[in-house]
Amino acid sequence: MNSFPVLDKNVIDLSGAETSANVLFELNRILEGGEYRGKKIKINLADISVTPDNMRRLRSIVEFAHTELEIIYTRSLNTQLAALSTGFVVSEKIPTVQEIEIVEQTKEKEITETSFQEVADRYETEKSLEELLEGESEEDEVIAETKTDNKTLYITKTIRSGNSINFDGNVVLIGDSHPGSEIIASGDITVWGILGGIAHAGSRGDNSSVIRALKISAIQLRIANLFARKPDRIDFERPEKTSSFTPEEARIHSNEIKIYSLNG
Amino acid sequence: MTGRVIVITSGKGGVGKTTSCANIGTALAKNGAKVALIDTDIGLRNLDLLMGLENRIVYTIIDVIEERCKLNQALVKDKKNPNLVLLAAAQTRDKTALTAEQMQDICNRLKEEFDFVLVDSPAGIEQGFQNAIAGADEAVVVTTPEMSAVRDADRIIGLLEAKEEIKGYKLLLNRVRPAMIKANDMMSVEDVTDILSVKLIGIIPEDEDIIVSTNKGEPIVNMDNTKAGIAYSNVARRILGEDVPFISLEPPTGWLDKIKNLFLVGANS
Fold first, then answer.
1. How many CB atoms sit inside 10 A of residue B148's CB?
2. What is the pLDDT of residues A150-163, one digit of tens each?
3. How does DSSP classify residue B182?
4. Which residue of A has its CA nearest to B156?
5. Which residues contact B108 (CB under 8 A, 6 or more apart)?
6. H or E stretch at A58
7. Smallest Cβ distance to B260: which of A157, A160, A242?
8. B198, B144, B172, B135: which is closest to B6 by C-alpha?
9. How many CB pairs under 8 A join A and B?
10. What domains, with CATH codes, occur in chain B?
11. DSSP for residue B175
């Protein structure tokens, strides 16, 4: 089923291939004509599951045709992970328009050391997960839909400069994100490590999205259509060390991105 | 037993890839290994200059792949050490003259005859770099203790990680100035390894004798008693499996660093 409006000629739609063996066969057939030689392409794999081995074969096919693969569109989690570990950029959906207009609000990052109480209050109004599971009122069910219905991409490796993760849902990264990397999620972003690269939560406009990390050291934080940058450094910046974690959460409050300490 | 193909790369230009390739290769050969050096910087070749072999080049790697000569006709023997040969790059062509498959083929043929094949990579992440890593089993990533070099090294390591033929990579920290580190004006060794999450193969101090050695066309490991020469010899010994301690530039590690090791996700051993 091809329901994606195709934007440009360089998107190769392989969603009709059904199996990954067919994907490789079709891609090879399309590329061996030579018309994409020296050009960049994008591939749509829809729901097809591609193993890491086949993803490497796909890379070989692309390299052999002297073509550059810019991005793979796929809804399959397995394919996303295989593509990411092969070094490709992935995305859930083909964007139809410029997704977010990033308003030129250069807000300085405010580290508001709030007490744990303020944070706890916020959690109370949304109800804890235990209450959601036990509770029977309609109210509880509505909240369950908005926050826990999102899919979550769970990655257990450190992402380096040049790596890009783009996901429709929440992203959990167990590891660090190095400066030069990007995490773009329509939901929340949680980094169990040092967040050093760019993080964009609520990429489709959800300004209740949050960005959390054991240490927020991001070059830029973006939530929905607001962004905040790291303050300019006066002195030479020492790198973040893993021995000094300070769990923090960034979210929008009064139309600004604020960072809350989760340490109390 | 087939030899080890090690690519010496960095991302950033001018950090010391070619100097490191020349010196590590020479040091390995002095230890008795049979070593082949390959210069893949087609169009901007420098490895032959540093080895002092520029005048002796008749055939280059491009002549080999275009079949104007046999592979062993293009291998130039080192002036001092018969165990060491150089496969030079062509100066009159550019990086599009070589493909990854051709490079792989040459590396496979050389590793049958040599214990070590060291591939000197050009700067960047494009075709030149892709060619250089095409036949490699291992990598040495060279960087200096500066933010721009370290960022580029991080990018390169990301690209190396995605290539599963490369089974291991280590960091070579070059042009280190202990006095500046003590004065807090330069990143320390620990700062760099913390940012990159990668194991160290060597620390080479800044040494004016490098300039002398380059101009003479004589690798610094052949000059007596130089700081950088000794450091490069140590790198060769570590590659050969010996456990050589690093020159100590900082105070001993404490318990905080042991906790840090729990969080080094993705570090390569």
1. 12
2. 789 999 989 999 88
3. H
4. A161
5. B135
6. helix A52-64
7. A242
8. B135
9. 66
10. 4-268 (3.40.50.300)
11. E
Which of B95, B160, B263 to substitute to test the interface with A, most A CBs within 10 Å?
A: B263
Distance between CA B128 and CA B99 in Å, rounded?
9
Q: Which amino acid is at A160?
A: R
pTM for this prediction: 0.70
- What residue type is assigned to position A159 of the chain? I
How far apart CA B171 and CA B121 sit, in angstroms, is: 15
The owner of tokens 């990018």 is B155
DSSP B223: S
Q: Which two tokens stand for residue B173?
A: 């920290």
Each residue's pLDDT tens digit, A52-89: 788 888 998 998 888 889 889 888 877 887 888 777 88
What average pLDDT is seen over chain A?
76
Helix/strand number for chain A, H first, E second: 6, 17
pLDDT digits (tens, 9 = 90+) for A160-204: 998 889 888 999 999 999 999 999 999 999 999 999 999 999 999
Report helix, strand or coil for B226: coil
Nearest CA in chain B to A240: B195
